[in-house]
């Protein structure tokens, strides 16, 4: 986030970040930990891919949060490049696996795969932009793209929550897909509004 961001905007972003961490930890504890503990729940035919997905997703969630915290506060800044690099590598593995796993096991409704593939593709696009900006030393742009990337990381978490409790039961099985789209699009749009809010403020003088 650019240094001149208003105090109010900083507080909003900090609050959203805290909420995302709480949700992330809850989903990690009740969905990822059982997988890492051996609960494959019918995924035995591609157990290796599922373990890799769960392990890299864990790194993605928590290294991404740590990288954002360090970048935001400038504390332990010497670790920022290492934390961010680990986040990008782990997230790339998660995204590629998210695109690959539907080939091994099809979940109903089939539209779930379309929704999650779009989320994975957007994460890859945002993260490539963040990496490119850092490589070219465009650090303000890098901060913005990394924030967008982590918001999409959080929507991966929300998608898992959606599969447990779809918001649109009247749609039947398709309610899960509808919930995934809502849990993806709304956070991304909200993030963009918060980040761009200062650019629409009245000019002084």
Q: How would you sum up this structure, described in words?
A:
There is one protein chain. This protein has 205 residues and is mainly alpha-helical. 74% of the residues lie in helices and 0% in strands. The protein is built from 6 helices and no strands. It has helices at 7-36, 47-73, 80-100, 111-135, 139-164, 174-196. The longest helix is centred in the first third of the chain and has 30 residues, at 7-36. It is globular and about 60 Å long. The model has no long low-confidence stretch (mean pLDDT 81).
Quick synopsis:
By secondary structure, the protein is an all-alpha fold. The chain is built from 6 helices and no strands. The mean pLDDT is 81.
Question: Which descriptors would you attach to this protein?
Answer:
0% strand, mainly alpha, 205 residues, single chain, 6 helices, globular
Tell me roughly what share of residues is in helical segments. over 70%
Series of H and E elements: HHHHHH
- The overall pLDDT, averaged over residues, is 81
Give the termini distance in whole angstroms: 25 Å
Cα-based radius of gyration, to the nearest Å: 18 Å
Task: Write down the overall geometry.
Answer: globular
Total number of beta strands: 0
